[in-house]
Amino acid sequence: MTQPERAAAGGASKTPDSPVAPAPAPLELIGPPQAPAVEGAPAGPTTVLLIAAHPDDPEFSSAGTIAQWVAAGLHVVYVLVTSGDKGTADKAMTNARLSSAREQEQLAAAHEVGVDEVVFLRFPDGLVQPDLRLRGEITRQIRRYRPYAVLVHDPLTLFYNNQFINHPDHRAVGTATVDAIYPTARDPLQYPEQITEEGLEPHKVKEIYLWGSDQANVVSDISAVLDKKIAALRHHATQVGPAEELADRIRTRAGETGALAGVPYGEAYRRVVMRA
To answer: How far, in Å, CA of 64 to CA of 33, rounded?
Structure first.
């Protein structure tokens, strides 16, 4: 019996030329990041900045994780580069009406998971470039909020599962944010007017969490807060469609991600820890 015939018949092969590939190791489970205490500095919550291209990107990528981190006492701020003013198939819609609606949806979704501060930069949807203007604005927000960790789109992802193209705004925001983190926000001679005129200070980010990555190395277990993630997404009424279809889709995706770390539901990231 040939090797293919043996396989088709269900027989086990013990020939040395057909090794069984080992199962992939599960991804690491992570909890909330925690900034170390600084001697002489007042104690305060760890700050996290989530920087996204469009309203609903924070919820699709990270609502469960953020809900848990806020509950654990972290201070989380959202920065939205655009207000999603092109995201519709309605030819009668206007940019102004859509961006206004989507900002309100984002505020409600953020509140659902305990985030009370959302910054809208209002760059034009679909036209975002990883240029010096965007890098400077993101640098300003990093210096303003001084986060220990930043969550953002992975700029290296061009295709998702060989099925979807990653939105160019996602890639642009990811690139500009990574470039703002290092070296720009750190160096006082980069955008010096932010320091001399605005009273900001240079800042070093310690951890980066990149979502939408094909090089994910950690999973956040969101099993206890999956319903909260779905509830947050439902606020994006202009984008997400029928509620039950949304819930089924999110459960399926979060279940596939959770399986990577052996938990019921998860959100995955490529975690980068910057050297001191």
So the answer is: 15
State pTM to two decimals. Answer: 0.90
What backbone phi and psi angles, to 5 degrees, belong to 39? -60, 130
The conformation of residue 85, written as its DSSP 8-state character, comes to T
Count up the domains in the chain and report the number. 1
Would you state the pLDDT for residue 276?
A: 76
**Is residue 39 situated within a structural domain?**
no
- For residue 26, being part of any structural domain is answered with no
CB atoms within 10 A of CB 214: 13
How many angstroms separate the CA atoms of 190 and 169, rounded? 24
Note whether residue 188 is domain-resident: yes
Q: Containing domain of residue 208, as a range?
A: 45-273
Structure tokens belonging to residue 97: 């009406």
- Mean pLDDT of all residues belonging to the chain: 92
Residue with tokens 């609502």: 63
Q: Each residue of 214-259: pLDDT tens digit?
A: 999 999 999 999 999 999 999 999 999 887 899 999 999 999 999 9
Q: Is residue 192 part of a domain?
A: yes
Q: Give the C-alpha separation, 122 to 231, whole Å.
A: 25
CATH code where residue 82 lies:
3.40.50.10320
Separation CA 66–CA 231 (nearest Å): 13
Report, as an integer, the average pLDDT of 190-195.
98
List, as one string, the DSSP characters of 89-134.
--TT--HHHHHHHHHHHHHHHHHHTT--EEEEEEEPTT----SHHH
